């Protein structure tokens, strides 16, 4: 983790240098391009109108248009020292709606992607149960299944920003997240099948990959809304997302969503393994560490405009959009500001509002061509309001890596270019 760059702009510098554009809502008038003359793309016959395209047998598995080849997961070179045990990021600035396409869902694994055949995989339940059991994948498919839409966020998402602005793009600051429809068996049904003993108050989930990932989960959560998932967005899990089966722990940090799930051990106390002691704990200023901070607090980010998605038009009607989420419920409201918090406006929510899922918001305004300071602030259904980074640091200090849900700021200059800055 590097310190804040010496020349990183301050709040005072930005507010003094940019008495920002008007916050008036867009008038709703249509935007008309004023052409100097006939546009040949309109007046002349184009090649794609003259020749037959590919037939349906050319692409047996659908892929995006070649003109969208730039929309991919990306890595950060200095952060991705070892591709086998590392992470890539979802291109949030390229997406709309709330569902992440399967091929763009961020990856995090600790020993590379395990290659397991459907027929070779087994899931064992042992420990404090009446009947220790082993399920094949076909066995699991005989249990009742449910479909649920949830976000999965790594606890380290935005972690590089604790000490100041570091990464220039929402793909890199906030892209350790995806939001998909999971299909799976409620975990409680498998535990009921095995006969959960009353002394069983904790569950240890273990993955089948070479890292042997394990996490302790309290039984209340396991019996509530956890799924043993086999599908995402209607198709079988991708290999990098845990094929053939993974755990889904809604609203809780992604490291607990154990991929390539092979074993569920029932016990009467947490196991205190690596991922819940030396990792995935929140180091405070006094050296103490908060542990078992599972829930992901309400958070939001403006995806457009942003450093990877600058404003490319001149002054006039402009659409701001982003996503918000909470591990404790829904997002009924998001506020946005274009002047660094001097004035706030309630954004327009669009699309389904689902528990522990992403929510899409929009704010339309007339940009006058002057600099902007863009922020969003999420409110969740419990009444919690997304804090500033400074508010978080008063409680947590600067030593943490995980659970940074502070308000993000993008500075937009007169050319429409965006930069990651911090103003509190």
Quickly list its features.
424 residues, mainly beta, Immunoglobulin-like, Sulfite Oxidase, Chain A, domain 2, 2 domains, 5-stranded mixed β-sheet, 5-stranded antiparallel β-sheet, 21 strands, 26% strand, disordered N terminus
Descriptive account of the structure:
By secondary structure, the chain is mostly beta strands. It folds into two domains: 11-26 and 296-421, Immunoglobulin-like; 102-290, Sulfite Oxidase, Chain A, domain 2, CATH 3.90.420. Helix content is 9%, strand content 26%. It contains seven helices and 21 strands. Strands 2-1-10-5-6 form a five-stranded mixed beta sheet. Strands 3, 4, 7, 8 and 9 form a five-stranded antiparallel beta sheet that branches. A five-stranded antiparallel beta sheet has the order 16-15-19-20-21, with no helix packed on it. It starts with 10 loop residues before the first helix and ends with a strand. The relative contact order is 0.17. The model is unreliable at 1-28 (pLDDT under 50).
The figure for the number of domains is 2
- Say which CATH homologous superfamily of the largest domain is assigned: Oxidoreductase, molybdopterin-binding domain
What percent strand?
A: 25-35%
Report the top-level CATH class of the largest domain. Alpha Beta
Oligomeric state of the chains present here:
single chain
What would CATH call the architecture of the largest domain? Alpha-Beta Complex
Task: Report the span from N to C terminus.
Answer: 19 Å
**Poorly predicted residue ranges:** 1-28
Largest sheet features: 5 strands, mixed
Determine the fraction of residues in helical runs and give it as a percent range: under 10%
Number of strands: 21
Number of helices: 7
Walk across the major sheet and give the strand order: 2-1-10-5-6
Overall pLDDT metric: 91
């Amino acid at each position: 983790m590097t310190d804040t760059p010496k020349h990183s702009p301050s709040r005072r510098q930005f507010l003094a240098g940019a008495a920002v554009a008007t916050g008036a809502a867009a008038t709703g008038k249509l935007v008309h391009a004023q052409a100097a003359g006939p546009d040949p793309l309109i007046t002349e016959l184009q090649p794609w109108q003259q020749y037959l395209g590919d037939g349906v047998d050319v692409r047996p598995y659908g892929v995006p248009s070649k003109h969208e080849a730039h929309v991919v997961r990306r890595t950060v070179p200095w952060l991705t020292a070892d591709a086998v045990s590392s992470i890539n990021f979802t291109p949030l600035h390229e997406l709309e709606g709330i569902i992440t396409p399967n091929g763009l869902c961020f990856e995090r694994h600790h020993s590379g992607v395990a290659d397991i055949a459907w027929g070779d995989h087994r899931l064992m339940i042992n420990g404090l149960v009446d009947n220790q059991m082993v399920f094949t994948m076909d066995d699991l498919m005989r249990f009742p299944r449910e479909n649920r839409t949830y976000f999965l966020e790594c606890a380290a998402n935005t972690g590089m920003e604790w000490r100041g602005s570091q990464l220039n793009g929402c793909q890199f600051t906030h892209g350790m997240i995806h939001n998909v429809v999971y299909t799976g068996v409620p975990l409680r049904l498998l535990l009921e099948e095995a006969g959960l003993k009353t002394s069983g108050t904790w569950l240890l989930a273990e993955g089948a990959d070479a890292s042997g990932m394990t996490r302790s989960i309290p039984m209340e959560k396991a019996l509530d809304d956890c799924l043993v998932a086999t599908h995402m967005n209607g198709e079988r899990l991708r290999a990098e997302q845990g094929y053939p089966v993974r755990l889904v722990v809604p609203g809780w940090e992604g490291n607990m969503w154990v991929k390539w799930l092979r074993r569920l051990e029932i016990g009467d106390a947490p196991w205190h393994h690596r991922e819940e002691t030396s990792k995935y704990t929140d180091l405070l200023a006094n050296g103490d560490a908060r542990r078992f901070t599972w829930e992901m607090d309400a958070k939001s980010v403006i995806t457009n405009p942003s450093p990877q998605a600058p404003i490319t038009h001149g002054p006039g009607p402009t659409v701001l959009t982003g996503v918000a989420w909470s591990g404790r419920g829904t997002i009924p409201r998001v506020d946005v500001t274009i002047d660094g918090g001097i004035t706030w406006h309630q954004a327009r929510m669009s699309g389904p509002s689902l528990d522990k899922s992403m929510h899409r918001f929009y704010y339309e305004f007339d940009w006058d061509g002057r600099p902007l300071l863009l922020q969003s602030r999420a409110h969740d259904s419990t009444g919690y309001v997304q804090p500033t980074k400074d508010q978080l640091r008063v409680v947590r200090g600067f030593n943490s890596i995980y659970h940074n849900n502070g308000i993000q700021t993008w500075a937009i200059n007169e050319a429409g270019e965006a930069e990651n800055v911090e103003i509190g």
